[in-house]
Write a structure and sequence with these properties.
InterPro entries: Methyltransf_12 (IPR013217), SAM-dependent_MTases_sf (IPR029063). The chain is α/β, with parallel strands linked by helices. The chain has one domain: Rossmann fold (3-Layer(aba) Sandwich). Helix content is 33%, strand content 27%. Strands 3-2-1-4-5-13-8 form a seven-stranded mixed β-sheet, sandwiched between helices. The chain has a two-stranded antiparallel sheet with strand order 6-7. Strands 9-10 form a two-stranded antiparallel sheet. The protein binds S-adenosylmethionine.
């Protein structure tokens, strides 16, 4: 199965909807809104003057937000429409950024630049069959002493939504709509893999990175799953038997040498 072709087609379709959506609210972004959330802003702290590689950057809102905060940014995504939109936004806003259209693993094989920071967030790992290759890409892209930051949806919430926690040998192949409010019943075939947190942690360790912090968060900044309820000032939560479900986790790791 050509999972890259199938998923790329889905993301080309999704990107068109996302750029127009209230969910991504490009108009307010153009007026100066930062698209980053407190979880990643607090974890990365100052990016001023640092080189930052954003893997699976979608159409660049977060990448360009890091640029507005002073980082020298490079974004990578395999969707040509996403990269086109990211470049158009960059130009319209007069920001400096470099966007590359590539599968993330292919990028890791050919890239020779090393960055101070590698960042990736919210809905990225499920598209990748092999986290060992992904972690190698991350490690190779960092300079010695550089930092990796992952902010990802928690796999326990996937479990409660009916997905496997422990990987099946076969990926999940589904006909699915997207998460923005303007989806309007439009669906695409998507191929995804579940990755338990132990697999993520072990992939990073095996790639030679040192994990410096691991956090779990009961609130998601995004209303993109069934069964979420809004809590003012905190975000969206999910309750299971009256208890909060972990919705997001974040990892900071370093390439020590
Ligand atoms: C859920 S989005 C990431 C969300 C992002 N934080 C945002 O909202 O701006 C997932 C992104 O991964 C990209 N993607 C999926 N598989 C990929 C791959 N193998 N290589 C590169 N990009 C990929 C998609 O095109 C999409 O832009």
């Amino acid at each position: 199965m050509d999972y890259l072709r199938i998923n790329k087609d889905a993301w080309e379709k999704r990107t068109k909807l996302h750029v127009e959506s209230t969910f991504y609210d490009v108009d307010s972004f153009k007026k100066g809104r930062c698209s980053l959330n407190p979880i990643e802003l607090n974890q990365l702290r100052s990016v001023q003057g640092k080189s930052l590689l954003h893997l699976q950057c979608h159409f660049g809102l977060d990448t360009l937000s890091w640029a507005r905060l002073g980082a020298d940014v490079t974004g990578v995504d395999f969707s040509s429409d996403a990269i086109k939109q990211a470049n158009a936004l960059k130009q319209a806003l007069g920001l400096s950024a470099h966007f590359i259209e590539s599968d993330v693993i292919q990028f890791g094989k050919t890239n020779t630049q090393q960055f101070d920071i590698v960042f990736t967030s919210y809905g990225v790992l499920c598209w990748l069959p092999n986290l060992a290759d992904w972690a190698t890409t991350v490690a190779k892209s960092l300079r010695a002493g550089g930092e990796f930051h992952l902010v990802e949806f928690h796999t326990v919430s996937d479990l409660l939504s009916g997905y496997a926690y422990f990987p099946n040998s076969e990926p999940s192949v589904e006909e699915e709509g997207t998460y923005t409010e303007n989806c309007d019943g439009e669906t695409s075939t998507v191929v995804t893999w579940s990755h338990p947190i132990s697999e993520v942690v072990n992939a990073l360790i095996n790639a030679g990175l040192t994990i410096e912090s691991f956090s779990e968060h009961p609130y998601s900044p995004y209303n993109c799953f069934d069964g979420l309820e809004f809590v003012p000032d905190l975000g969206y939560q999910m309750l299971y038997n009256g208890h909060q479900v972990p919705l997001v986790y974040s990892i900071k790791a370093r390439k020590v040498s």
